[in-house]
Amino acid sequence: MNDSVLVLSIVSAIVAGTPILFAALGEILTERSGVMNLGVEGMMLIGGVTGFWAGVQTGNLWVALLAGGLAGVVFSAVHALLAISLRVNQIVSGLALVIVGNGLSSYWGTIGDAPLIQSFNGVQVDPILPEALRGLPAVGPILFGHDPVVYLSWLIVAGAGYFLYRTNAGLSLRAVGEDPAAADAAGLSVTGIRYLFTLVGGFGAGVGGAYLALAVLGTWQAGMTAGAGWIAVALVILAGWRPWLALLASYVFGALRTLGFTLQIAGVEVPSDFLSMIPFVVTFLVVVIVSANPERARRVGAPASLGEPYSREAR
Amino acid sequence: MTLRVSVEPRARPALAVRVGVPIASLAAAALVGAAIIVVSGNSPLEAYRTVLDSSLNGVRPITRTLVLATPLILTGLAAAVAFRMRVWNIGAEGQLYMGAIAASGLALWLPADTPKVLMLAAMIVGGSVLGALWAGVAALPKAYFNTNEVITTLMLNFVALYFMNYLIFGTVSFWRDPGRNYPQGKLIPDSAELPIIHHRLHYGLVIALIAAVVLWWVLRGTTWGFELRTIGDSPSASRYAGMSVSGKILSVLALSGALAGVAGAIEISGTLKALDPRAVATELGFTGIVVAAVARLNPLGVVPVAVLLGAVAASGAKLQTIGIDAEIVFLLQGLIFLFVASGEFFLSNRLVVSSTSAAMSQTPATEAAHE
């Protein structure tokens, strides 16, 4: 039964959803501070190429993921500088990250004597739990058959939820996103907290990109995210800025992205271009449906100051 | 005594600032680009000489630059008009694909002996209508539910891309040439080709220039344009003044999509001569956003900026021959975008450097100067 279409497709959905989950968790924390970073696609690409390069160089998965995350941090620092300090329109700044990230990662992939586009994945991404657990029917592959990064992402989801709702620091973060002027008056550093969580978001996107290149695709291709970063941005809205809902939504989108593979083993013939379209059509529809009901749109809880720069003088 | 840097708003930047800041931004982008080229083991001087040589040195290079600038003028206008009202249409890319699909479809469907004027008019109108409708798919929820248009227009790009791919690679559609083994679009008839100005430069450039002038006039000289700018500056005040914001969202996105659709139609008619998804999907829509931002959303400013980015794009193939990958083109365009966006800050603010002791004694004076 562990070879059944259903089990295999759930497993592949989890693997395909994990990069989106990392990126979406990071973006949730960034947006909770009131900063919108639309550059997730660019940060995932630069994290992907850096992580893949580090993987080829060192052969160590964790070093590679860290390298990818740090590349995302560097990119998000650019956004932080532009959006928070220079008060550049956050949409413009985020788009700039996407275009630079796409250009730089594509360029990096082609340079040198052994370009990354011709390299093989240097790291091993294997399951960690004992064979006995993995062999259990259904739950074995679905719950116990994953690599350590998937389990790490589950820990981070739990940690992020705890942090946001059960700690003082999480309360400070939400306060800055909801009402920066009040948070400022209460003695919180609005700029400092926004910088910090913009960088945290960049780390998440970078790790997501690195995991996508190393574990999901296993190769580096220019533009390998193919919209995954944008889906992560949309997913933050769909998840109502809540980490555990992001987990669920990521796996649903993972399932949609691997639907072609699933249908193929099930013997159903659908043109691949239409299959590739599905995640984007579904995202479009869900974003519209969520916004169509004002009551629900209010309840899902966008941070009140999302996208607005804060300046003490302009209060 | 320490130095203190403070930020002061600028009321209206002097001419020197308005010219100087964009030039400094371009120079900064070129410098960072140079640094990246050095790190990747190539010579930036050689690279930039090649860019200039292959884009501006001689009639052939200039025509090549202008051919590439033509769609960028139109997608730049598409972004500029929407962004001016703070409607973030990121979907010019997909709207352009739809324009290309409509224009090539009409060119193949109408009799080949249709008079050229009618044929071209049909293609351009058809391209603009489908582009506008595709933008409308995102405009309706934006206008009535206030749905985030950044997400919706972006998702529609991917839908349009896969649809266009399907027409050529996924099936033997009306657009595909059944006589060839390799999936390829059918060639449009001669009557559907834009006339040539010189070498490969076609009259699409003239259409784009007319569009820029008309849009400039519409924004400055008409009530519609005035309302658009007012809503962009203050949506709530415009509502109180009795302007229909929803209606304006629909018309602005339709116009924006139509401009992108015309870009797609002109690409088919003037350059590609067949629906070739790989040649249509070259980020013309995204680059249009860069064009609009660098031009500070001014329709007339879009023209020189599109020529500049067209020049960068025109050098891609030549750069390849000196060992620099053509991907550098997107990197340079992105850097220009990034630095020009940062430059906006220095147009509306200035940095004042002072020592702490002096700053303290000057505080009342600075405040007085503000009032």
Detailed description of the structure:
The complex is a heterodimer of chains A (315) and B (371). Chain A has 315 residues and is an all-alpha fold. Chain A has one domain (5-299): ABC transporter involved in vitamin B12 uptake, BtuC (Orthogonal Bundle), CATH 1.10.3470. Chain A has helices at 5-32, 40-58, 61-85, 90-110, 131-134, 139-144, 148-166, 168-178, 180-185, 190-217, 228-238, 243-257, 259-266, 272-292, 294-299. In chain A, helix 3 runs antiparallel to helix 4, helix 7 runs antiparallel to helix 12 and helix 8 packs across helix 10. The longest helix of chain A is centred in the N-terminal third of the chain and has 28 residues, at 5-32. The N and C termini of chain A lie far apart (62 Å). The mean pLDDT of chain A is 89. Chain B contains 16 helices and 4 strands. In chain B, helix 1 (15-39) crosses helix 2. Chain B folds into 2 domains: 1-42 and 324-371, no CATH class; 60-323, ABC transporter involved in vitamin B12 uptake, BtuC (Orthogonal Bundle). Helix content of chain B is 73%, strand content 5%. At the A-B interface, helix 3, helix 4, helix 11 and helix 14 of A face helix 6, helix 12 and helix 15 of B.
